[in-house]
Specification:
With 486 residues, the protein is of the alpha/beta class. The chain contains 20 helices and 16 strands. 37% of the residues are buried. Residues 8-122 form the Response regulatory domain.
Length: 486
């Protein structure tokens, strides 16, 4: 079984007894520890990029703990620092927090678990910040494909195809379910082409009646139909030199399909009611959520128009087929709507991200965007939690039901197995605590697990027993399987 990555901790204290005790406490929890008894050497050691958390004493010779704190934060602002002091005062705590400390511990320690739990919380915060930074970097280097976001193999293939076809004038047909971002692909193609300085015109063909659609696309002359009080240019003329995006092309009525075919074949449009055609230079990008091949076979879509449109096809995958893109998209929408709402919402908890990843997203990216916008509006915290998501997201996937396991079937095997295992072990621990009246010691004995290891499991799986302190949520890289802790 894979082990959970433990935070690497630097402990700096000139008191050898305290230094040894803290080191042993943290090593028992599985943390790699660098122990140093000199503040100046500690400042040098803190520059190690693999250090996640620093625990240091306030009172030390040569360099005070406060000066060491400021020096560490100047070099490594991302590192979480915990101060230790035998002379705790409100003023000391305020000064430490203002200088960037995460928390402080009072010596002597009343409970050694307080040391490991405080370090665990600091490590969780560091991991969440690391994840957020990684997502921001991924968003920054996504080759500037407008708002097209993804790192999955499917989306990388789409990006490559977009880059290739952008430099041609060929007609492109984009296929995909509603909400997958077909217009974003069309815009990406346009703004990478030689036509980028010319108009990009989008029209939803399913939103208009046949008469209005023809008038919008091709224009009309005065008196051609009731309400036509003057001459009007159509969208093809408006897009001259640029690109026109025909969304939901599969819903275009047969008569309009004939007129579209003429535009593609002859490069000219005829306004409704006019006799003379008008030449246009327009690249056509069409999109549909229906299977045009089947519609063609059923006689619902002209075969000749189909082949004119289907020169190059781009298939957009549904979001459920690329769950690895969910965190990236969720973070993108989080930044977008937090900025719009002027709220300091900076992250998404591991349990919330787990619930988002498990969802099947029948509404695709558009549905995910709506869920994140709702969560940003509703949350009162700086991190979106599972309680901020719609009710259907608040039940974690369960491993003992065929229906619930089916909900994970769209995920890659390794990811589905990890999520199912986490759900099972979380439920097992909750049930064990309930059976033992929330008593951690009794539950640990019933499980046949050492009490300290059992407490660590409860922390990893976000299950709280009696006398356990409230905690921040862990990073969602997975948790150590129960049998590995026994």
């Amino acid at each position: 079984m894979n082990q959970v990555k433990r935070a690497k901790v630097l402990v700096v204290d000139d008191d050898s007894v305290v230094l040894k005790a803290v080191t042993q406490i943290l090593q028992r929890e599985g943390h790699p520890v660098v122990a140093i008894d000199d503040a100046v050497e500690g400042l040098t050691a803190a520059k190690d990029p693999t250090i996640d958390v620093v625990v240091l004493d306030i009172k030390m010779p040569n360099l005070s703990g406060m000066d060491l704190l400021r020096g560490i934060k100047a070099e490594r602002p991302d590192v979480e620092v915990i101060m230790m002091t035998a002379f705790a005062t409100v003023e000391t705590a305020v000064e430490a927090v203002k200088a960037g400390a995460y928390d402080y511990l009072t010596k002597p320690f009343e409970n050694i678990d307080e040391v490991s739990l405080t370090v665990a919380k600091a490590a969780e915060r560091k991991a969440l910040k690391d994840r957020t930074r990684a997502l921001e970097e991924a968003l920054t280097v996504r080759s500037q494909f407008e708002d097209l976001i993804g790192q999955s193999p499917q989306m990388r293939s789409v990006f490559k195809l977009v880059e290739t076809v952008s430099h041609s004038t060929a007609t492109v047909l984009i296929q995909g379910e509603s909400g997958t971002g077909k217009e974003l692909v069309a815009r990406a193609i346009h703004y990478r082409s030689s036509r980028k300085d010319k108009p990009f015109v989008a029209v939803n063909c399913s939103a208009l009646t046949e008469t209005l659609l023809e008038s919008e696309l091709f224009g009309h002359v005065k008196g051609s139909f009731t309400g036509a009080t003057g001459n009007k240019k159509g969208l093809f003329e408006a897009a001259d030199g640029g690109t026109i995006f025909l969304d939901e092309i599969g819903d275009v009525p047969p008569a309009t399909q004939v007129r579209l075919l003429r535009v593609l074949q002859e490069g000219e449009v005829k306004r409704v009611g006019a006799n003379e055609p008008v030449k246009v230079d327009v690249r056509v990008i069409a999109a549909t959520h229906v299977d045009l091949s089947r519609a063609k076979e059923q006689g619902k879509f002209r075969e000749d128009l189909f082949y004119r449109l289907n020169v190059i096809t781009i298939d957009l995958p549904p979001l459920r087929d690329r769950p690895q893109d969910v965190p990236l998209l969720a973070h993108h929408f989080l930044k977008l709507y937090a900025s719009k709402a002027d709220k300091k919402v900076t992250g998404i908890s591991p349990r919330a991200m787990e619930a988002l990843t498990c969802n099947r997203w029948t509404g695709n990216v558009r549905e995910l965007e709506n869920v994140i916008e709702r969560a940003v509006v509703l949350t009162g915290n700086d991190v979106i939690d599972v309680e901020d998501l719609p009710p259907g997201f608040q039940s974690a996937p369960q491993a003992d039901s065929a229906v619930e396991v089916f909900s994970l079937a769209h995920l890659p095997y390794a990811q589905a197995k990890r999520l199912a295992m986490r759900a099972f072990e979380r439920r097992y621990l909750s049930a064990l605590l309930e059976k033992n009246n929330q008593n951690v010691s009794s539950a640990a004995r019933a499980a046949g697990v050492d009490r300290s290891n059992f407490r660590r499991l409860l922390k990893q799986y976000e299950v709280a027993g009696r006398s356990m302190k409230p905690r921040a949520l862990k990073d969602d890289e997975g948790a150590e399987p129960l049998e590995a802790a026994s």
